[in-house]
Amino acid sequence: MSDLTPDEAFLTIYADLAREGPGAAADVGWALSVAATPAQARICDAGCGSGADTVTLAKERPLAQIEAVDKITQFVEAARRRTAPFGARVQVREGDMADLSGPYDLIWCAGAIYFLGVSEGLRLWRKALAPSGAVAFSEPCLLPRPSQAALAFWAAEYPQITDVAGIRARVAAAGYRVLGEQMQVGDAWEAFYVPMGKRIAKLRPEASGALSEALDKAEAEIARWKAAPSEIAYALMVVAPE
After folding, report:
1. Is the pTM of this model over 0.85?
2. Within-domain flag for 196
3. 106/224 Cα distance (integer angstroms)
4. Fewer Cβ neighbours under 10 Å: the N or C end of the chain?
5. Exposed, middle or buried: residue 242 (CB in 10 Å: 0-12, 13-18, 19+)?
6. CATH number where 132 lies
7. Could you give the 3-state DSSP secondary structure of residue 234?
């Protein structure tokens, strides 16, 4: 695998992973409850990746119509395979999550709103929400009194990170209010990094070139997380327009 481009090498690592970022099925259920998402809702999974949360959304709301959107063809194809048992009520399309039509009762976005910016994404999605609709998103968050190890993790991964007060401020700047919030720490990250570590070990013997470099970067990321696993967090926020 020496002739891969950097993008192809990145996608090779993620090809057999169930998730593209931290999270757990229980987080989805919590957000649906906080948002009071109705049984026959119309839901969007924005930046759906390979569809782990799309599947959970479909199970949690078996009467809902769900649209999942991602811009990466490999992820869209994987999400379509995973959601095929749900039939036509779950549609997965390749597209830009900045351009949603709706109207949706809930927009779910796990670890991807940072591509748009919290305030910017919420402003864009406001027009795609139903009158009583809500947005649930996860965003990197500094916990109180972070250690040097935690700061080093985020300096490498997301230097513009803030604490939860900073996220609330960005929500308010977009004209939204917070309905609920909780931190994703520990198990949600282990569910992502443990399978990734196994995938790296599987690929390593045959790796060279761009793939070897991508594996090195992924291993370094896991090592930084292991240095402070109880401090590396996403804030999972459920918000609604004022």
Report:
1. yes
2. yes
3. 34
4. C
5. exposed
6. 3.40.50.150
7. strand
